[in-house]
Amino acid sequence: MADTPKPPGKQSNLVLVAALAANLGIAVAKFIAAGISGSSSMLTEGVHSVVDSGNQMLLLYGKHRAKRPADHDHPFGYGRELYFWSFVVAILIFAVGAGVSIYEGWLHFVEPEEMTSATLNYIVLGVAFLMEGTSWYLALREFAASKGRMRWWPAIRHSKDPANFIVLFEDSAALAGLVVAAIGVWASHYFNDPRLDGIASIVIGIILALVATLLARESKGLLIGERADNDVIRAVHRVAAAYPSVSSVNHVRTIHTAPDKVFVAISVDFDDALTMGDAETLIEQIETRLKAEIPALSSIYIRPEKAENTNVIPAPA
């Protein structure tokens, strides 16, 4: 299954912690620079960093909660709680990050405030770019390792670990925002028009809104429930159909209960000559082999069912 994204590794928390540390330090510097210079785009960038810091804390909390073992009320575990917090993060980026940025930019455009120091802003933006760039590189490296040979966009669409691509998108938006903020500061001084700094703040807000919309769309799909990749489904078909007493595999239905856990339900037509006791033994053998070949299968349900009594769905091509 070379084309299937690898399960998230232990380095995922490192990426989140690195991004959190960078954003907290950057936020303080941006607010100080905004207070001294009066730059709207710098204030917007400070809010952006605070929102990103809160997002990383929520993702760390979600990953911690998702590790809880299954219990009576949640027999498949708490893995999908991470998907809930990922969706909350997307909403926060849109409502707080983008909303405050656009609002602050509009206020600065309507009532422009003269900036006093561009040099300080450039220094803070340069340091922030280096720190955000480091965090972005760590997130990019981890996602590149997890996606295998898949192309970037399909890997993002098929990824079941939202923490990985959320940090990558957040950092990408942050770097783009820093560039826009720098252009806004420069243009305001060069053309002696502080309203341009407000326009830069609005552009930053639009970038955040677009990123938030994309993240919400991906997180929503995971929260509702997405099937496993085609390679996993094909492997389940192959293993179950390999036994001579299996007449046909009618269908395989899967759903991710966590980034690295999959529930699978298999409809199988057994040979009519097979006794009930032999069928039970065969089901145990199939389950054992499936767990050995596909460790991500956390729960397996095999239902004996005549092919003529159900819609037979072939394995993905």
UniProtKB/TrEMBL annotation:
One of its GO terms (cellular component) is membrane. One of its GO terms (molecular function) is monoatomic cation transmembrane transporter activity. Its main location: membrane. One of its GO terms (biological process) is zinc ion transport. SUPFAM superfamilies: Cation efflux protein cytoplasmic domain-like, Cation efflux protein transmembrane domain-like. Residues 16-223 form the Cation efflux protein transmembrane domain. Keywords: Membrane, Transmembrane, Transmembrane helix, Transport. It is found in: Membrane. PANTHER family: HUEL-CATION TRANSPORTER, PROTON-COUPLED ZINC ANTIPORTER SLC30A9, MITOCHONDRIAL. Belongs to the cation diffusion facilitator (CDF) transporter (TC 2.A.4) family. This is Cation diffusion facilitator family transporter. The lineage of its organism: Bacteria, Pseudomonadati, Pseudomonadota, Alphaproteobacteria, Sphingomonadales.
